[in-house]
Request: fold
Amino acid sequence: MLKIRSSLWLMAATLPLAPVYAADSVSYTAGPNKSKPNPYYISNRAPLVASPLVRLPAGSVQGQGWLKELMNRQSSGLTGHLGEISAWLQKDDNAWLSKDGKGKYGWEELPYWLRGYQNLAYQMNDPKMIAEAKVWIEGALNSQRANGDFGPLHYVSGDVRDFWANMIMLYCLQDHYDRTQDNRVLELMTKYFEYQNSLPDEKLIPNSWQHVRGGDNLYSVYWLYNQTGAPFLLEFANKLDRCTLNWNRTDGFPNLHNVNVAQGFREPATRYQQTKSKADLKASYDVLAKMRSTFGPVPGGMWGGDENSRFGYRDPRQAVETCGMVEQMFSDQIMNGITGDTFWSDHCEDVAFNSLPVAFTQNCDALRYLTAPNMAISDDQNHSPGIDNTGPFLMMNPFSSRCCQHNHSMGWPYFTENSWMATPDKGLYAAIYAPTTVSATVGDGAKVQITETTQYPFRDTLNFTVSTPRAVNFPLYLRVPAWCKAPSLAINGKVVRIGAAKNNYIRIARIWKTNDRVALHLPFELKVVRYEANKNSASVNYGPLTFSLKFNEINESVDSTKTAIGDSQWQKGADPAKWPSTIIRPGSPWNYALVLDNSNLSKLFTVQNRPWPSDNYPFSTESAPIVIKARARKVPEWKIDQFGLVAPLQSSPVKTVEPIEDVTLIPMGAARLRISAFPVVGEGPTANDWKLPQVTMTASKPLPSVEVDWMTDESVPKNSNDHDIPRFTWWANKGTLEWIEHSFNRPRPVSSVSLYWFDDTGRGECRIPQSWKLFYKDGDDWKPVAATEFGTKRDTFNTVSFPTVNTTALRIEAQLQQGVSGGILKWRVK
Ligand SMILES: [Zn+2]
Reply:
């Protein structure tokens, strides 16, 4: 601890009436002292673990600067006007407004949207929006039935209720309670949880989204317990946990859908608050880490999960949903509160600054379902099976992508609300950095405001100004991000020497007076991150930002009704002319490899601050307030592939004969088309040629032919039922005659073929085929190889040898067993 001003210490015990001055002190610390709960805000109630940080009530933090501008755009754009577009938000025949839970529209869409919209309305202080939010809050509060159930009567099967949409509405009601202390919220939630608790296990969230996302229900149970202390809630929490998907499993993956993971992974950590089991806490860390390492790693904080993550699809061209990003950010905020670990704030900033802004058009009047770290086209075409989902999912369309269309709303409002937290020792913590003003009760009960003025993450200084009605003693905590080695600090212009970061919190204890100022400098440093597991590709970071190649984006407006996906529904009055969709195509080359020789980073890269944009919107290619000059060389063989996607990376270093060019990198949060994981240029024997696909595969079921390395590589499956490696299947064809072809880009001799069949007996409906045959291409004809034995053994390679043929392609025809499908794990050619 370093004293920055000596003051007289007086013993309060002996001189109780004398003024007591604590010495001002600034120190690194592992986190706030949590021996006593914060007296002003609701923390965890015993026997739950003591809260290391305490959530401030909704309404405590206002966005300023660029953050306010983003929310302005959201409110004049899609979030603010979705009520005029989306059929699920129309009041006519809406089950969220009916007493009996019946109505045509009534599921997740309304609460998804309301969760962000309500908070946005207060951020904007817009009476019309506030009134609109209240209509739906009143609807939900008035919908409770005699048995305690509320909301639309949606069923997963028979009389088994689907509680998923209610889980989201509970967040809306809690935010409403924070602002109004409306006791009806506590009453509704108490009766509702009594009702849920009365159900037998088999009827409590047994399947569908609700089963996977039971952690959201659990969150609200603890929220209510902390409010009321009703003992049955802890019993009910045990039951909910038991009925929720097991996110603690250590073998394999609990779930592979990107949104499920982004919200479900925190269930064990939520549960830890009651069990106090370190294993529960660890499970949440492990699930996220495993997703990021198996389906990545990639820049931008997320992973490859374009609907579902698929084994073998880890390239940065794989995407995530906008829902996945906002859920991940919200989870990071919750995890921050549960653990006090600054890792979660760092991670929230990574997703918020580098991934989320470009899920939207600049005016925030349209969004796309999927965004990837490497994407050179954002259009209305189907890119499956290059990405998992079939349809126009890369399109910026305000009429489409039903879940993200509504759920995106919470992204920036929740980011704002959770950027500050109270601490148990009656202080405040700047958890996530952005321009904001927080109003909160601290110290001896004074209500203070702290205004955080900054252009972070584009600039490295944050200025905090205190406003208080009287001098008040409280600790202010500031986060030291993991990437920052040596922060520096000044209080009222006087530099405080704090030295290199020893911990991730800076604690400033002081008697604060109005207009006291703290300047925090978090020096940004250049860093090249190498992704060995992703073809040794490279990203360029500077402080919290990751950078993308700047290339031209050509925008084209098209009719939203023509390219909306099949399950979209819009209101009769929705005007597609007012709400067009946008296709974005590249207008200049994007296929560059970075020049990274051994010179130090400041020689390789030049960071240039650019003027702050006059419209306060920094997330665009034209007005990004910081750029990095770099050198790169084109890789002509790196192209858009047959699925309309940036072809997968190949192992760096890569050879190229193209000249060195000066290129500009911009924050990836400003690049709607982007290359943010680059190949690296190399020379000599250790560098690799960029190979055109050696092998192309086609089949009677779609299969991404450029990504079949996994099928032909040298690895050996554990057994035929190995679910942890990629597989090809003819699913859901059953009992049929199927084929798969394996083409070479030049003729080659072949004398044997080995197949490892997929068979998931006991788990799924794929089996060894009944029989199969092998053909080779001779001119334009397929000829059978001269062999008679075609093995169908499980758990091993089935090898067929034959007199050598010279050929450009092989073809397997497999007769599937009756009533089942089949597939292949490995196909080797010798
Ligand atoms: Zn979505």
Remarks:
- The pocket of zinc ion is lined by residues 259, 321-323, 403-404, 407 (CB under 6 Å).
- The first strand starts at residue 2 and ends at 3.
- The chain has 19 helices and 36 strands.
- Residues 443 and 474 are 5 Å apart (CA to CA).
